[in-house]
Design a protein that fits this description.
CATH class: Mainly Alpha
Shape: globular
Strand order of the largest sheet: 1-2
Order of helices and strands: HEEHHHHHH
Number of helices: 7
Radius of gyration: 17 Å
Number of strands: 2
Distance between the termini: 38 Å
Strand content: under 5%
Helix content: over 70%
Structural class: mainly alpha
Largest sheet: 2 strands, antiparallel
CATH architecture: Orthogonal Bundle
Amino acid sequence: MAKKIISVKTVVAIGIGAALVFVLMRFVAVPSGVPNTNLNLGIAITTIFAAIFGPLAGFLIALIGHTLTDLTFGFGVWWSWVIADAVYGLLIGLFWKIYRIKEGKFAVLQAVYFNLIQIIVNAIAWIGIAPVLDILIHKEPVDKVFLQGIVAWGLNAGVVLILGTLLAFGYSATRVKAGSLKAE
């Protein structure tokens, strides 16, 4: 029998995660004061789902959720930011085993790793990828896109630091730890 590439659980998680990201990005976006840059609670969902279900889930959740959000705003898909978001989900998911959320072992040390990784990956996505692609694809002014990227990095890192960490602790606490059940 052929090995499954992706589990049914992961497919369902991608659907739910993308829907949550869409709803949060579309209807709960808080303007930052910098044009086209919002406080985005959807980043916490991308992060927690990627940390639990891995890189493919993180990539697809961000890609689908962000694309749907852009399509419903009516100004077209801003691929530079969609790609940055998808790469963010992918990179966060690469470290899923370190976080130990799925095992119910997300503790202070894992929270420190989780946040160091997300801060670095947010910087890669929002200070590196998004502004560079804005310049290459959309011919946007350098100072504008790097200001947007720095603000997005700070806001996203802050949202994940607070909301993402709380979600990770909460979900991890619901998981049954191996060896915790005893026969009577």
